[in-house]
């Protein structure tokens, strides 16, 4: 009797352990299989050469990832630049300004932005945002920045709406809820005593936010930004619609460009030679390693924030 | 001095107004997207959309019956594969693995995996399930969604089990119950709503994924329930139709987007209400 109980318990323990280890094996499996599949491309182009070559020519079988890497980095950074201030503003509003009875509802509303599928963002971007950008906003920006030396270069070219600026804008809307909700949660953790003592000294609300709450929540904010960065690097469908998949290093915000994800989405099923396919796997490997480390860093920062 | 206070008050007003405007901007985007979906999508919501297969390119009419059925089948495969594994994995992390290094490590790994690019998962499944078999198939699509669900279910299960107070476990132990019985009859029962919600949210998360399906289940413009064949899905169909040249395709893509988005929003909101109702303080 006792023995069979023990046996069952061990069996159950083993089964649950198998569930846990599946997760680990999957991650390991992804890494190993991507390395194996990209071996041919790694052999042909090496690491440094693949990262720095700007040619992506399936006909001549010369593959380099510099155009996609630059596209990915540029779009991620611009999207973050647009999303971070808005998201922090939303978090401040939620914590300090929103009336209590609206807090839950408004918080959920912002988080709903995160549950809209990325393909919807892409389609909306293509049919709604791109025409507005191409017809109104981009020509306006061009005229506005024309007299200013540095900025006029950024807005060179024909405003078509299918470009870096539109892709970053759509992406930034997707990032807002991630940054806003983590920032809100960490702002909420500010000890009330600290806030009250600042108010007691006659500080205004903004001074309390700026000097007490934001510094207190800084790890949470950094962590959320890095998480958003990881998400932005891997975002595929939203960008695939509005970026144009152009393998050229962009010179203006109105250029079409390519990211790693968009290249994979558009070309993976078309790859007709082994080396072509292997190079695409190589891209996936780079993306996997890159986002893995970025997300691990985010995790580390967030933990540091909560350990205090 | 008086001037200084005035300046600080103005600054205060400006900064708080900016925060207020950001909130309005966030709300604006959401309303903009949802309103657009509603306006463009509602036009093509008719019975044919759900009951008919696609018309040949360029012809009017037709529906997406094949894609709806395919999407449901793929998600079912994902749930059947991903959910039990995820719940078991989360159970180990919260119960047997307590304070063990490996549990801590895998829990962190799961957190990281939640945000790993979905398209990378697609390439992986292509390498292990599509190329060896020689053709795109529905199973591969389901498995790639299951891989995306797995870390989400693991983490929510772990969190929910940890909310169950130790006293409950101890009471059951005191009655002489072995650990597996304590877990199944006490801990799971207490955490059932939470786990169910985690599963619902995980389904909502993967139901809208298109990237990993592009080269696993691929697409198919014919009706099929055979998971060994390329399987149509709503999301990949939306991608193809929206990128396609026909005006009629765009309308159908909007309608399909409308249906899928609202289904996902309803499931998400239901999940949240469930959590709120069960765990309100």
UniProtKB/TrEMBL annotation, chain A:
What is the protein name for this chain? Phosphate transport system permease protein
Gene symbol of the encoding locus = pstC
Q: Which GO terms describe its biological process?
A: phosphate ion transport
Query: Which UniProt key words apply to this protein?
Result: Cell membrane, Membrane, Phosphate transport, Transmembrane, Transmembrane helix, Transport
Question: Where is the chain membrane-spanning?
Answer: 12-36, 73-98, 119-137, 157-180, 219-243, 280-302
Determine if Transport is one of this entry's keywords: yes
Tell me, in a sentence or two, what this protein's role is. Answer: Part of the binding-protein-dependent transport system for phosphate; probably responsible for the translocation of the substrate across the membrane.
Q: How does it sit in the membrane?
A: Multi-pass membrane protein
Q: Which domain of life is it from?
A: Bacteria
UniProtKB/TrEMBL annotation, chain B:
Cellular localisation: Cell membrane
Any one GO cellular component localisation term in the record = plasma membrane
Q: What is its main location?
A: membrane
Q: Which organism is it from?
A: Deferribacter autotrophicus
Give the superkingdom in one word: Bacteria
Which named protein is this?
A: Phosphate transport system permease protein PstA
User: Which biological process annotations from GO are given for this protein?
Assistant: phosphate ion transmembrane transport
Segments forming domain ABC transmembrane type-1: 68-271
Taken from the record, one Pfam family name reads BPD_transp_1
Transmembrane ranges? 12-35, 68-93, 105-130, 136-154, 186-207, 252-275
Q: What topology does the record note for this protein and the membrane?
A: Multi-pass membrane protein
Q: Which family does it belong to?
A: Belongs to the binding-protein-dependent transport system permease family. CysTW subfamily.
| Recorded GO MF terms | phosphate transmembrane transporter activity
> PANTHER family from the entry?
PHOSPHATE TRANSPORT SYSTEM PERMEASE PROTEIN PSTA
Q: Which UniProt keywords apply?
A: Cell membrane, Membrane, Phosphate transport, Transmembrane, Transmembrane helix, Transport
């Amino acid at each position: 009797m006792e023995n069979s109980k023990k046996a069952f318990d061990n069996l159950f323990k083993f089964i649950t352990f198998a569930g846990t280890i599946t997760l680990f094996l999957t991650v390991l499996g992804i890494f190993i299989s991507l390395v194996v599949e990209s071996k041919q491309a790694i052999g042909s182009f090496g690491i440094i050469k693949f990262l720095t070559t700007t040619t992506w020519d399936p006909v001549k079988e010369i593959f380099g990832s510099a155009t996609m890497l630059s596209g990915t980095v540029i779009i991620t950074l611009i999207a973050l630049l647009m999303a971070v201030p808005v998201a922090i503003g939303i978090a401040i509003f939620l914590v300090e300004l929103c009336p209590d009875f609206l807090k839950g509802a408004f918080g959920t509303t912002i988080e709903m932005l995160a549950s809209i599928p990325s393909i919807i963002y892409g389609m909306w971007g293509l049919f709604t945002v791109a025409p507005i950008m191409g017809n109104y906003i981009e020509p306006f920006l061009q005229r506005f920045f024309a007299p200013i030396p540095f900025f006029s270069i950024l807005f060179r070219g024909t405003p078509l709406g299918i470009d870096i600026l539109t892709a970053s804008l759509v992406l930034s809307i997707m990032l807002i809820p991630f940054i806003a909700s983590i920032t809100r949660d960490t702002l909420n953790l500010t000890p009330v005593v600290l806030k009250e003592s600042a108010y007691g000294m006659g500080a205004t609300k903004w001074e309390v936010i700026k000097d007490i709450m934001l510094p207190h929540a800084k790890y949470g904010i950094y962590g959320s930004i890095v998480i958003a960065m990881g998400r932005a690097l891997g975002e595929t469908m939203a960008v695939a619609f509005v970026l144009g998949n152009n393998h050229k290093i962009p010179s203006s915000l109105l250029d079409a460009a390519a990211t790693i994800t968009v290249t994979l989405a558009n070309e993976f099923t078309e790859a007709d030679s082994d080396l072509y396919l292997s190079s695409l796997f190589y891209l996936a490997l780079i993306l996997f390693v890159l986002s893995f480390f970025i997300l691990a860093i985010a995790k580390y920062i967030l933990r540091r924030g909560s350990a205090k | 001095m008086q001037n200084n206070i005035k300046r600080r008050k103005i600054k205060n007003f400006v900064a708080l107004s900016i925060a207020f405007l950001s909130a309005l901007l966030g709300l604006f985007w959401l309303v903009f997207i949802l309103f657009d979906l509603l306006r463009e999508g509602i036009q093509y919501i008719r019975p044919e959309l759900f009951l008919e297969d696609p018309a040949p390119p360029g012809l009017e009419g037709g529906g997406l019956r094949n894609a709806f059925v395919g999407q449901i089948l793929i998600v079912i495969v994902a749930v059947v594969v991903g959910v039990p594994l995820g719940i078991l994995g989360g159970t180990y992390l919260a119960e047997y693995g307590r304070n063990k290094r490996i549990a801590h490590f895998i829990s962190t790994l799961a957190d990281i995996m939640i945000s790993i690019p979905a398209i990378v998962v697609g390439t992986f499944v292509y390498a292990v399930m599509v190329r060896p078999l020689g053709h795109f198939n529905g199973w591969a699509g389901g498995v790639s969604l299951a891989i995306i669900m797995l870390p989400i279910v693991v983490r929510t299960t772990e969190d929910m089990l940890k909310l169950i107070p130790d006293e409950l476990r101890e009471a059951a132990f005191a009655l002489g119950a072995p650990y597996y019985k304590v877990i199944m009859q006490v801990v799971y029962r207490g955490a059932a709503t939470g786990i169910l919600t985690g599963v619902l949210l995980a389904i909502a998360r993967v139901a809208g994924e298109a990237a990993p399906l592009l080269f696993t289940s691929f697409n198919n413009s014919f009706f099929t329930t055979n998971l060994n064949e390329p399987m149509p899905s709503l999301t990949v169909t939306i991608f193809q139709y929206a990128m396609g040249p026909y005006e009629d395709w765009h309308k159908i893509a909007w309608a399909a987007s409308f249906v899928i988005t609202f289904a996902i929003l309803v499931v998400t909101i239901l999940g949240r209400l469930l959590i709120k109702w069960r765990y309100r303080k």
